[in-house]
Amino acid sequence: MPDYSDQFEKDGFCIIRGGIDLKIVDNVNFVIDKFLAQHKSMLEKEDLLAKGFLHRVINLHHSVTPLKDVFIEAIESSKSVTDKFDRATLYTSLFFELSSQQPLHRDTPYFFSGNFGGYMGVWAALDDVDEDNGSLVAVKGSHFLGEPDLKKLKSIFHPSEPVPPSSPALFDAYNEELIALADNAGLETVICKVNKGDMIVWHPATLHRGLPHINKAKTRRSFVMHITPENLPIKHMDYFFNPNKIIEPVSKVYENYSGRQIEVGDQIDFMHKKSFIADVLGYFK
Ligand SMILES: O=C(O)CCC(=O)C(=O)O
Ligand SMILES: [Fe+2]
Question: What are the counts of helices (DSSP H) followed by strands (DSSP E) for the chain?
Answer without folding.
Answer: 7, 13
